[in-house]
Amino acid sequence: MSTADLERRMTELDRLLNDPEVRMDADRVWTLLAEISRAARPLPART
């Protein structure tokens, strides 16, 4: 995932969690968290 993709997902997550005018979509929140988590995890070392 590119840095721009990661930033877009984090912005969307922030909006879902903090904007009172946006309806909470729990499935989307969990999906975004999983995607962000996978992107933050370092790849295993090649041997």
Automatic annotation (TrEMBL):
<protein>
    <submittedName>
        <fullName>Cell division protein ZapD</fullName>
    </submittedName>
</protein>
<keyword id="KW-0131">Cell cycle</keyword>
<keyword id="KW-0132">Cell division</keyword>
<dbReference type="GO" id="GO:0051301">
    <property type="term" value="P:cell division"/>
</dbReference>
